[in-house]
Amino acid sequence: MTILWYNPYKEPGVAFVHSKNKLKSGDVVYYIFDVHRIPGSNKQKRTCVERYRKSELMASNVEPEAFIQKRIAELKAQGPQEITLDYRIELRLTNRPSEVAQDGSFRPSHGYKNLGYLVYACIYHQLKLDELINNRRRYTDASFNINIIFQHLIYSRCLMPSSKLKSWEVREMFLGSTGYALQHIYRSLDYLLQWRADLLTHLDYQMQEKYGRKHSILYYDVTNYYFEIDDEDALRKRGVSKEHRPDPIVQMGLFMDEHGLPVTYELFAGNTADVLTLRPAMEQAIIDFTNMKRIIVADKGMMSVLNILKIRQQQNGYVMSQSVRKSDEATKAYVLSEEGYTEFFDAEGALRYKLKERTIPRMVSATGQLDTARHSGIYNERQVVVYSPRYAKRAREEREYALKKAALYVGTKSTDARDSTYGKLKYVKKTPLKNGEKQDADAYLVEWDKDKLAEDEKYDGYYLICTNVIGTTHILHDKEPDFAYYRNDGFLVLNRTVSAQDIAHIYSGLWRIEETFKVTKTGMLKLRPVFHQREDRIKAHFLLCFVCLVLERVLEYTMDWKYSAASIQYSLSHLNGQQLPNSNVYLFSYYDQIIRDIEKTFNIDLSRKFLRQIDIRMLLAQTKKIS
User: Fold this and answer.
1) Tens digits of per-residue pLDDT, 61-86?
2) In sequence order, what are the residues at sequence separation of 6 or more whose Cβ sits closer than 8 angstroms to the Cβ of residue 525?
3) Predicted structure pTM score
4) What Rg value do the Cα atoms of the chain yield, rounded?
């Protein structure tokens, strides 16, 4: 159904243009836009008035391009039509036109309402966050509604991440009591930080109840966020920045479940090494790791003797990678030996990967916690070696990038005798030089380190997974497959068979946590840079962003990871309605496939083009009832 509506502010000289969009299915959608100047400005407004599919036109034996040009000519001759709306009637469109902002940006202004936040409201109430906040609020002397403010901060960051000031300025976009002042936002953050442990525990419990979360496998990784300041403090310190920035940073360790959903997080000073965060994160987390038979999965940055001993001491399991290049000679020889590998191929016969495994006693030593002496010991460990052609290709590409940078230094002279073990100078060495000749001298010639280069190339595509997780053939049928017990020899035994492929599959889930970090940084949440100065406000900001992250990932998970966080944010942030003059009716002019799928998933109707304010309130009330 196509409707032309009359704009009382439209000036003479109506123009029509068209555009087309190619879908993934190969079909093409044609849009006809009404273009007119906005009164009182030099800006133009584009409104989609008709939409056609190429497949439908071709089925009717109509040539698409000629038809579109003909329709534009007809619309120009016809002029705008006036439609009188009876606001007591619900007007629905099945194939709705879309209005897309010319610059793709989301700029809310006075008189707009957003419907996209209703999706996050569904999840917010589904996880009963409103009940928790309201229960805590009863015991405060706050004159403002912390629950409403918390919701508005979440919806604003999920849809259009910005400062707290900006969130306060656009609060009218959402329904609810919006009469709170800017200072009430900061006071609400203080309360929320006080309730951090309760909030994280509540979220975790609801995720277990609503989404069947299990803590049997937990992924852990660390990233950091920079602050555009000069001076350090107790929390914000200069360290190894993931973005190679010189600014002070804060480290964040994140636990994620096997579904790819965040569980909890901990903050650390910026100069804390990644490997030193795991043990305190386990001790401070809302999750009980003591004798709970959990499996912790982490990359090689977490591989240390003390971390492994901590996990074993609490009778848990681990799946961690270890650098092949930094392993002992016996391990390198085992990795490169072709004996024992099982190969797996794709449908075209190309090698996907190959793997083999062994169980060995491992000799380790570490400095004691009660003294400075070195203590040695032996524990049994299962090792799985995996070779992936795709991983080998990526290693070669990364090396080529480093070599191109290093080539700029080859043949130059340096007064620094130290060789680099990482970065662009990893594959060069410095030879003493004097008067152009090599000798013991005070100048050094930068040359290619061909031996180092050849040594590294041998291990392209290989990675070593270390674990104490094994399976059993004596399955207890009255127990769940994830039921586990800890054996005296240090192995965690699951109530099912656990092949080398299973171990590799468990470890491969780490990519999801890396993607989660991207969502918080360059993705839809844009947690960084952080502009708060007080430590408590910084911690409150991270808490707010973590809750937003949980809601966003739950939305993606509920839709079976069909769409990215950025594409969902774009669609929902553009689902805005402009209030019609002299009425309480809002006109919504954006709709796409993502919104259509969200409607089906959450059983909420976002397809109506005209909505009264009472209709929007009814939709909001509906979000509290969706299970």
Assistant:
1) 889 899 989 988 888 877 555 444 44
2) 157, 158, 161, 519, 545, 548, 549, 552, 565
3) 0.79
4) 30
